[in-house]
Amino acid sequence: MENVTDIRPLISVCTVTYNQANYIAQCIESVLMQQTDFDWELVIGDDGSTDGTSAICQQYAAAHPHRIRYYYRSRKNRPILSADVNVNRYNLVETFKTAGGQYIAWLDGDDYYTDVQQLQKAKQFFNANPDCKIIFTDAHDVDANRAFLHDVTSAIRRNLNPDDLIFNCPVTSSLMFEYAAIADLLQQPAIWQAPALDLFLMATLSCNSYMGYVPTLPVGYRFHGANMRSEKSIRRFHRTTLINALLLYNVLRGNCVQTTRKRILIASRVNVKYNLRHFNIRYLLSCIRMVTGYVQQSGDWKFFIDFWNRKLLYQRSS
């Protein structure tokens, strides 16, 4: 077989990892087991691991030089970035940039595929739906030992519109998208500044189309250690929901604005109600600042009136 750099693969599985020595081998093995009728590659971006992750990745890259490219990016050699840039995103963006495939499959280093045809099914969907730029597949939350926790896609087994993403955001490691569709984005400041890069890409790539759903055996999306759900993470989830809503407004301004506006209202009320109930003043003030920023940016001053409209208060998203 030719070296992976000699021919362009159809799909580049992009994996970013940092200190995931307990999980990275399973992630890599789940990619190596893929059964396809096309060429693919695995591009691993290591964010300066110090726990043995690097040695594991190097061993796999040496054993599979035609499939795996491995990049170690020391945290000491980062470019100087402005204060408003998410510096932890450097490894991810650089990993995307080095991908050689027509499509990118995003698989985090502590997650894993369970379907040997994960890539094949995605390719078949893209071939049948050339207007679709991004897809997602089934996924389950699992714990550190791969025990089932939650069916993440139970409510969203369908093609999604951008407005669906505020409350129904697919799992990052189930995503695949067209490289050409993000090539320009990778050179723009927004790629560094977006609060949630996965949501930003989902909204941007589905803005004038849709986000395709591809049935597969579920991706294992791992919750462990600091990732486990807790009261703190629940508060963070509510705040992130509002951030996502405001981010979607900025991406979709001029597209589906009315529906997006309604969902921003709902997300805002959910945040305020939750934080008032739990006397969380810090998060409450943070939510108010974000809502005020939305109003100033959009010029939608009627938002404050609608926010307290009792008829809208208990509406669900539609």
From TrEMBL:
GO molecular function, one term: hexosyltransferase activity
Entries under InterPro entries matching the protein: Glyco_trans_2-like (IPR001173), Nucleotide-diphossugar_trans (IPR029044)
UniProt key word Repeat: no
Keyword Transferase: yes
Span of domain Glycosyltransferase 2-like: 12-168
Pfam family, one: Glycos_transf_2
Keywords: Transferase
Highest taxon, organism lineage: Bacteria
Protein name: Glycosyltransferase involved in cell wall biosynthesis
Taxonomic source organism: Lacibacter cauensis
